[in-house]
Amino acid sequence: MLNKFNYIDDVKKTVLVVDDEYVNREMLGAILKEYYNIIYAENGEDALRLIRANEKILSCILLDLLMPVMDGFKVLDILNDDVRYRSIPVIVLTSEKQAEVESLRRGAADFITKPYDTPEVIIARVKRIIELSENRLVIQSTERDELTGLFTRSFFYEYANLMDRYHGDREMDAVSVNIDRFHLVNEIHGRDFGNKVLLSLSDVIKDYAHENEGIAARGDADDFYMYLNHQDSYAKLESRINEAMGSLDKSVYIKVRIGIYSCLADSQDMENRFGRSRLAANTLRGKFNQTIAYFDNELQHKVFYSERLIHDIHEGIARKQFEVFFQPKYDITDDKPHLKAAEALIRWRHPEFGMISPGDYISLFEENGLIQMLDQFVWHEAAAKIRYWRDKYGVTIPVSVNVSRIDIYDPEIEDKIDKLVDECGLNPEDLHLEITESAYSDNAEQLIQVVEDFRNKGYLIEMDDFGAGYSSLNMLANLPIDVLKLDMKFIQDIHTDGKALRMVQLIMDIANFLHVPVVAEGVEVEDQYRLLKRMGCQLIQGYYFSKPVPASEFEEFIGGTT
Questions:
Q1: What pLDDT, on the 0 to 100 scale, is given for residue 239?
Q2: What is the predicted pLDDT for the residue at 475?
Q3: Which part of the chain is CATH 3.20.20.450?
Q4: pTM, rounded to two decimals
C-alpha cells in the first residue's frame, strides 16, 4: 500500500522568533527547529525587515514585547494595519498578564508565558495557531465572492441564520436582486462591461444592507441577496440602483428586478425564504415598467399549486391520470373537407384539482425538465393509436406530437423515437414532430442538426406556433421544416380585421413561395374557414371541426372517412 503524502503537513513551515535576549531566542529555536525552519530577529525593526522579506513563507511569529529600538506593541500595530501581514498569526512572549490582554486587543493570536520550561506546551501552541490560521485562510477564500467581495451564498445563509439566533426579535426581509437578461449585456457589450455592471450593483446593495443592519451576498452570475431589517418601502433602493446603472453608459438600458419576502414571524428555513424572494423577482420578467415585486398570498398559493403538480406528475402517469386527446386536421383543398391528420394533446384529470389546463403545467414542467417525461408518454400513446386505428380501420392517420426544447438536448432522442416507430410497425412519416418556433430561435444550430437527421429518415417536421415569436421571417427560408402551423392569434380576427387578414395572406404567400404547406390553428367559425380556403390554406385545425377529444371519440372522424 502506498503511503499518503499530505503536502501541507509534510512541508516544513517557517517561524520567526523575535526576542532581544540571545538565550531566549536560542532556547525557542532549539525547542522548535525539529518541526520548523527558524529565523531570528533581536528587535522590532529587524523583525519587520525579515517579515517583509519572507511574507509569503512565514507561518507564525513569536514576538517578545519588551525590546529596544522598537517594542512588540509597535510591531503588532504595524502588522494589524497592513493587509499584507494581517493574516500572519502572532504569538506573544511575555510574563505579564496585563500585557497579554493588551496584546490580544492589538491582534495577537495567542501568548506563551516566560520562562520556557514546558517545551511540549510551546510546540502544541505553535502547531495549533498555525493550523487555525491556515484553516481561516481557506475559509476566507471561499467566504467571499472574488469579483464583488460580498459573501458567497452558502456563507451568507449561515450568517443570516446567526443573525436570527442572536437577534430573534428583529423583523427581517429576504431580498433578491437580479438583472433582466444579463447574458445579453455580456454578449453585446463584453464581459468587462458586464463586470462593471456587477460591481456597481454590488456597491449599492452592500451599502444599502449595511445602512439597514443587514448583510449582502452574490449568488450565481447576476443574482444578489440581502438579509436586512424590514422596510416598508424599497423605493430608495430602486432609485439608487437605477442611478448607478444609468451612470455606467447612457446608451445601455439595464433593467433590474427586486423580489422581496418579508420574514415576519417566519418558520421557513433561510433557503426557502430566498427561494420565495427569487420567485417574486421572476414574476417581473417582461414587465418593463415594474421593478419591485413582493411574495404575497396569491404567489404563495401559486407556489403551493406548482409544487403539488411537480410532486404529483409521477403518480399521475403511473395511475393513468394523464390522457392523450386528439384534435383532427382537415384538408380543405378539395370541395369537401376530409380528415388528413391529428394533433396529440395531453390532458390531466387530477384526483383533487379535476381537469387541469395544460397552461398550468406545460411551462412549469419545461422549466424543471419534467416535460421530457410527459412528451415521451404522449409519443408512446400517439404511436400506439396510429397502429391501432390502422389495424381497425385500414387507414393511417398521421399524428403530430410535441418535441420540447429540452428533448433536443437529449443525445438519445433519435434512438428513442426510431425505436418507438419500429415497435409499433409504423413508418417515420406517420409520426409528425412539432417543434415550436421559439426553439429554433433559442438553439438554432443544434436543433437544425437534429431536425435534419430526422428529416433524412423520413419524419415530417412541423414548426408550431409560427408568429408567436419574433424572428421567424428572418430565418424561415433557411430552416428545415415540412409544415408551418400558423398560431391561432393570427386567425382569430381575420374575419373582422382587415390588417389581420392581410397579415395572414402575406404569410400564406411566403409559405407558398417556399413550397411549405400551412396548418391554420384555432379556426372556429365559418367566415374564418372560407377566408382561409380562398387564400389557399391547405389544412385547418380548430373548433370549427372539433375540439380536442379522447381517442374513443376521435374514432368517429376516422369512421366517416372509411
A1: 93
A2: 60
A3: 311-559
A4: 0.61
Sheet holding 292-294, edge to edge: 151-152, 215-218, 224-229, 172-179, 256-262, 292-294
Report how far residue 494's alpha carbon sits from residue 508's, in angstroms, rounded to the nearest whole number: 13
In the numeric block, which cell numbers belong to residue 469? 415569436
Tell me the pLDDT band of 458, cut-offs 50, 70 and 90: very high
Number of neighbours of residue 108 by Cβ within 10 angstroms: 26
DSSP letter at 283 equals T
- 2 residue type, one letter: L
Q: Which CATH architecture has domain 311-559?
A: Alpha-Beta Barrel (3.20)
Question: Mean pLDDT, to the nearest integer, of 449-467?
Answer: 88
Question: For the domain 10-143, what is the CATH code?
Answer: 3.40.50.2300
Q: What is the dihedral of CA 8, 14, 16, 21, to 10 degrees?
A: 120
- For domain 151-295, the CATH superfamily is Reverse transcriptase/Diguanylate cyclase domain (3.30.70.270)
Per-residue model confidence as pLDDT tens digits over 30-80: 999 889 999 999 999 999 999 999 988 898 999 988 888 998 899 998 988
CA distances, 450 to each of 68, 411, 412, 414, 472 (Å): 80, 9, 11, 8, 19
- Residue pLDDT, tens place only, 160-186: 888 888 777 788 999 999 998 888 888
Q: What residue spans in the chain does CATH classification 3.40.50.2300 cover?
A: 10-143
